[in-house]
Design goal:
alpha+beta, Jelly Rolls, ten-stranded antiparallel β-sheet, 14 strands, binds 2-oxoglutaric acid
Length: about 300
């Protein structure tokens, strides 16, 4: 039984209109409201985290099977957020489900417009080419064959006339408090049956890749198109809550699709946000993750890597 199946028991699907609603508001007192909203974010996140960690610990021994969940869990909190750097007067409502604090993983139901999500996938399809991987010194592309078998393309918000990616950038900036100038272009990915991404880290350890100018502090994965229920393709976190030898050894076998936390691709517009670094900026070994093998249909995502320095 996967964590998602358990979380789903709490209630039905979130209302799409609630989870992605956006409205205009007055321009006055935005900074003081922003400060109080930040406090609200903290408080709600902390309480939601304790609630969900309780659930995780009660289900943590039963999670070696592939997820059978077909719908997302209900949100534990709905927050109004004001973008921090844009000066915009828009207000967003973001639903957050805290899935884990070790590593920090949050499910965001209805984060983005589902119709525009799907349209972005269609628009980028002619530009796709086989996905590539960062190489360690001395490695060759051939050494990495089969590790990442999706097709992909990088697209910036400016290159998306629909405004979908710009809207996602604004929301994730508001949510994380990290300016959008720290974000890489979106990597749109398509997985076909058999497609996968073996477990890996999104940060680049100095010891393996050499000194880095900046690190990917967080990753946002927005689902653009999703496969039928129970078709695999989960984003897995095999070291969630791992300790001791298990944590030290790590897991690199994507076939196992193992671990206590697997997030199934649910609906277009849903998203997953996770942090690759600890709050003190050291790398978080528990943030290891991968894309489990897709069994049927197609899975499209837009991945955004957010760095701890301006790009
Ligand atoms: O497709 C997925 O579920 C995972 C994608 C991923 O790990 C990445 O883009 O870094």
């Amino acid at each position: 039984m996967a964590f998602f199946s358990e979380a789903k028991k709490g209630g039905g699907l979130p209302s799409p209109s609630l989870s992605s609603s956006k409205r205009k508001r007055g321009s006055s007192s935005s900074s003081s409201r922003s400060a109080s909203l930040k406090l609200a974010v903290l408080l709600v996140l902390v309480s939601a985290s304790f609630f969900l960690l309780g659930r995780m610990s009660s289900t943590s021994t039963t999670t070696t099977e592939t997820s059978s969940a077909s719908s997302p869990p209900s949100p534990t909190s709905s927050l109004s957020l004001v973008p921090s750097s844009s000066g915009s007067s828009e207000e967003f409502v973001v639903n957050i489900v805290t899935l884990s604090l070790r590593p920090r993983v949050f499910f965001l139901p209805g984060f983005a417009d589902p119709a525009l999500a799907s349209a972005l996938a269609d628009a980028t399809e002619p530009k796709l080419s086989p996905s590539t991987l960062a190489l360690r010194p001395g490695e060759k592309a051939e050494d990495k064959a089969g590790i990442r078998t999706s097709d992909g393309v990088f697209v910036s918000a400016a290159e998306d006339p629909s405004g979908f990616l710009a809207a996602v950038e604004k929301k994730v900036e508001a949510l994380t408090g990290i300016p959008k100038s720290h974000g890489e272009a979106f990597n749109v990915l398509r997985y076909k049956p058999g497609g996968r991404y073996e477990t890996h880290y999104d940060y680049f350890a100095d010891s393996e890749y050499g000194p880095q100018a900046s690190q990917r502090v967080a990753t946002l994965i927005v689902y653009l198109k999703t496969p039928p229920p129970d078709s695999g393709g989960e984003t897995c976190f095999p070291l969630a809550e791992a300790e001791g030898e298990e944590l030290a050894a790590g897991v690199r076998d994507y076939r196992a699709c193992s671990g206590r936390l697997r997030v199934p691709p649910t609906r277009p517009g849903d998203a997953v946000l996770f942090y690759n670094l600890h709050p003190n900026s050291t790398t978080d070994r528990r943030s290891m993750h991968g894309g489990c093998e897709l069994l049927a249909g197609s899975k499209w995502v837009a991945t955004k890597w957010i760095r701890n320095e301006k790009i």
